[in-house]
């Protein structure tokens, strides 16, 4: 079954062609004073990148859409806590929907971490106009900006296992399939403008697929002076650094954890996934930016072993014994197959010890408590959910 399914699509031609260029461009060295751009710098993941780069003493250019106080307060707190040798420069007006808006942010940089991308599973948005197109065009806009930056050496794009796995409910590959970097998502795309069931999740996965494919096509066609590295992490959770004081401001992945912690989620998803700490995602991508071997390479990565959402609920029960977590999945099932992620390529090229999942969960809970997010109960949370978001927003399928 695996061989038959794998034959549907393997490594893209653009990625294969780009990988041949890996010896031609030196890697960036992220040391004291190195100027590096982070797009989406004030987001859940972006803040962890900024924090770790500042700790290295880098000159970090935080590319954000708005520089209003509420949008950059968390960035300013990171600067206050950073070593004196580190610098933080906040550049506003950087919008993935606006061509050329990243030019100034990357102009003097040696490296760019591209994280800015729509991250919503809201089924009510225009999935093409508001999710897929901005993700794709934003990635190309950043890459075109980087071609104008004379010092640029490496661009690192945060993709997703959503660009690899085929979980679409009506076209899903086997639930225990073994995925590698050679696989691509071919089942989440729309047919006649309509996404498969769990449309919000599929639109997000398709946006990551299209954006990453566009990046590889760009490098293969344009052959820029910099090299590209793409990382495909799984489900990312971890402590929040944003000034978030209402649960509806949480990023989607931490929201999926949150609704379990307040006992809102009554049954587990029927799917499975890997889990990775946001701090680890930042760490490995910074490592990848500096590694010559990672030039024009795609990496599938994972923090711990993959598990079903029912198994994940079991881990949560061990960590937080006073909270009641669901013990069954959709339709009352208690036994589920589990997908597998072959991360041997990443393990070959990098020495990395992931943060244990239980520590991630404890640290994330602490960050929720610090911001007063655990004062909500299942009942009070339910009363505040916008009616338009209820059908799919908290389905844990992705």
Question: Mind explaining what this structure looks like?
Answer:
The chain is α/β, with parallel strands linked by helices. The chain has one domain (2-238, 277-303, 340-355): Rossmann fold, CATH 3.40.50. The protein has 13 helices and 13 strands. Helix 2 (13-19) crosses helix 7, helix 3 (44-55) crosses helix 9 and helix 6 packs parallel to helix 7.
Q: State the end-to-end CA separation.
A: 23 Å
Q: Give the CATH class.
A: Alpha Beta
Structural class of the helix and strand makeup? alpha/beta
Helix fraction?
A: 25-40%
Number of domains: 1
CATH topology: Rossmann fold
What's the mean pLDDT score?
Answer: 90
Count of individual helical segments: 13
Report the principal-axis shape: globular
Largest sheet: 7 strands, parallel
How are the strands ordered across the major sheet? Answer: 3-2-1-4-5-7-11
- Annotated CATH homologous superfamily: NAD(P)-binding Rossmann-like Domain
Oligomer: single chain
Strand residues, percent: 5-15%
The Cα radius of gyration reads 20 Å
Order of helices and strands: HHEHEHEHEHEEHEEHEEHEEHEHHH
């Amino acid at each position: 079954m695996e061989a038959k399914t794998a034959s549907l699509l393997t490594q893209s031609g653009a990625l294969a062609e780009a990988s041949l260029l890996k010896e031609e461009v030196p890697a960036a060295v992220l040391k004291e004073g190195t100027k590096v751009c982070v797009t989406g710098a004030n987001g859940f993941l972006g803040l962890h990148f900024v924090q770790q780069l500042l700790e290295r003493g880098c000159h970090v250019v935080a590319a954000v859409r708005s520089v209003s106080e509420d949008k950059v307060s968390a960035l300013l707190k990171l600067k206050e806590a950073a070593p004196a040798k580190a610098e933080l420069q906040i550049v506003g007006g950087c919008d993935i929907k606006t061509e050329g808006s990243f030019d100034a942010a990357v102009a003097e940089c040696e490296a760019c971490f591209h994280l800015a991308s729509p991250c919503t599973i809201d089924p009510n948005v225009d999935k093409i106009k508001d999710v897929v197109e901005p993700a794709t065009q934003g990635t190309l806009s950043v890459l075109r900006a980087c071609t104008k930056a004379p010092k640029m050496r490496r661009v690192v794009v945060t993709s997703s296992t959503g660009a690899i796995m085929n979980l679409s409910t009506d076209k899903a590959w086997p639930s225990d399939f073994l995925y590698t970097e050679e696989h691509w998502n071919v089942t989440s795309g729309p047919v006649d403008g309509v996404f498969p069931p769990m449309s919000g999740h599929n639109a997000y996965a398709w946006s990551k697929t299209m954006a990453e494919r566009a990046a590889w096509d760009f490098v293969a066609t344009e052959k820029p002076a910099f090299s590209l590295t793409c990382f495909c992490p799984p489900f990312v959770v971890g402590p929040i650094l944003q000034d978030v004081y209402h649960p509806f401001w949480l990023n989607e992945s931490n929201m999926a954890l949150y609704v379990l912690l307040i006992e809102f989620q009554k049954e587990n998803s029927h799917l499975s996934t890997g889990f990775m700490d946001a701090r680890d995602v930042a760490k490995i991508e910074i490592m990848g930016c500096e590694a010559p071997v990672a030039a024009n390479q795609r990496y599938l990565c994972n923090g711990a072993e993959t598990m079903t959402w029912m198994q994940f609920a079991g881990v949560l029960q061990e960590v937080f014994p006073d909270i009641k977590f669901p013990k069954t999945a959709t339709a009352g099932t208690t036994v589920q197959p589990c997908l597998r992620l072959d991360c041997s390529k990443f393990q070959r090229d990098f020495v990395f010890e992931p943060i244990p999942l239980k520590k991630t969960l404890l640290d994330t809970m602490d960050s929720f408590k610090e911001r007063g997010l655990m004062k909500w109960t299942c009942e009070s949370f339910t009363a505040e959910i916008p009616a338009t978001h209820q059908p799919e927003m908290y389905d844990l399928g992705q």
